[in-house]
Amino acid sequence: MSSSNPLIDPAGLQRIRRLAWLVRLLSLVGVAGVLLLPLLFWSQPDWVASVARREWGLTTLQLDGGARLGGLAATALPAGCALAAIWQIWRLFGCYGRGELLAPRPARHLHRLGLALVALAFAMPVAHTLNVLALTLGNPPGQRMLTFGLSSMHYLSLLFGLMLLALAAVMQEAARVADENAEFI
């Protein structure tokens, strides 16, 4: 359905366009955060040490350039998933901003967004494990750590991704029905 469809309320479409503009703006902020925050974090040993001790429970850790570079590399896995998700949000709301609502293209972007969030649910605990390993690999034997943990954020990312996959399937079917109905009019 496009903006020329008489079934779409013009006021509703205008609200959707404003929301699409806002979401796309926030997507740009998200991209900047995903790209810059890991660089800032891993470049500051004191910040890394504070987080590693307080949140990851590490007492003996290495903060040399190699360990922090390893942590940054591990962070690239969830960052890539997050960037893929943000890209699909950008594309999805671009469709909405053009008035493309019940159509195959937004359904595809919603599906890909769901896949990116499912991938993120798996990437986050793997990256955490690799971060801890990077910071403790240089420790003496017996003080190296390999951890693996799951949190409610991982579960929510998985659940939300699966929900979006289901919504995308529903949206694809709705787009198909809308196309069939448009042929009869």
From TrEMBL:
Membrane-spanning segments: 21-42, 69-93, 113-133, 153-171
InterPro entries reported for this sequence: DUF2975 (IPR021354)
A Pfam short name: DUF2975
Lineage, highest ranks first: Bacteria, Pseudomonadati, Pseudomonadota, Betaproteobacteria, Burkholderiales
Name of the protein in its database record: DUF2975 domain-containing protein
Keywords recorded for this protein, A-Z: Membrane, Transmembrane, Transmembrane helix
Keyword Transmembrane: yes
The keyword Transmembrane appears for this protein: yes
